[in-house]
Amino acid sequence: PYPHTSSRTPTEGSPMSVVVQRASARFVTVGDGWVGRSCFSYGAHYDPANVSFGRMVACNAFVLEPGSGFGPHRHAGVDVVTTVLEGTLTHVEGSHREQRGPGSYVFATGSGVDHDERNDADEPVRFVQAWFLPGTTDPRPVVHERGPTTLGPGSFVLVVDGEADLGGTELGPGDSARVDEPAVLTGEATALVWAC
Q1: CA distance 19 to 119
Q2: Backbone CA torsion sign across 46, 49, 50, 51
Q3: Are 55 and 108 in contact (CB under 8 A)?
Q4: Gap between the Cα atoms of 59 and 128, Å rounded
Q5: How far apart are CA 123 and CA 111, in angstroms?
Q6: Beta carbons of 53 and 85 less than 8 angstroms apart
Q7: Per-residue pLDDT tens digits for 2-42
Q8: CB burial of residue 14 (10 Å; 0-12, 13-18, 19+)
Q9: Which residues share a beta bridge with 20?
């Protein structure tokens, strides 16, 4: 199984099951001018015990240096959710170019879409990209920044900055958690939370 820690912490009188993957256990891919860190099997990194959580089949954090990109590539059969954290990401689809600043963007790939993602700006761009099997719910994440947030079963949490507490389990930058029961997320952190 993939490197992780499990904890069962009481929450409101009921046991809570959390599976935590520490930042140091994520798969790292280094490209030409970019670095990616993956929560699930991705590219050359394959672990049959770690391929999905609910509808989520990928959750990758990237930093692209100025002038870098992935080159044209194809996606099919997934809903791609890109959350830009810092900088401006250029999304290229055919002859269409779109500048994407901080926020979340969703596109359904259906039977197949060719596109590219680049950094045409002068500063690095930092973003998280998650892939979901198509479903009826909006896969955009909820951004947690301050105060308590109650998470439902099937929630996936990725801390991007700061320190968080998930029902007694401490999470730092780059840590992720898969939640089986209702839980409360607190702390001075920026975290992305998806309902999977």
Answers
A1: 34
A2: positive
A3: no
A4: 7
A5: 34
A6: no
A7: 333 333 333 333 445 889 999 999 999 999 999 999 999 98
A8: exposed
A9: 5, 177
Please name the amino acid found at residue 51: V
CA dist., res. 26 & res. 30, Å (int): 13
Which tokens hold the place of 24? Answer: 């140091």
Query: How far is 76 from 94, CA to CA, in rounded Å?
Result: 15
Question: What pTM value is reported for the model?
Answer: 0.88
User: What is the token pair recorded at 21?
Assistant: 């993957």
Q: Locate 102 and state its tokens.
A: 């901080």
CA distances for 147 relative to 29, 185, 187, angstroms: 34, 8, 7
Q: How far is CA 182 from CA 14, 68, 90, 129, 141, in A?
A: 9, 40, 37, 25, 17
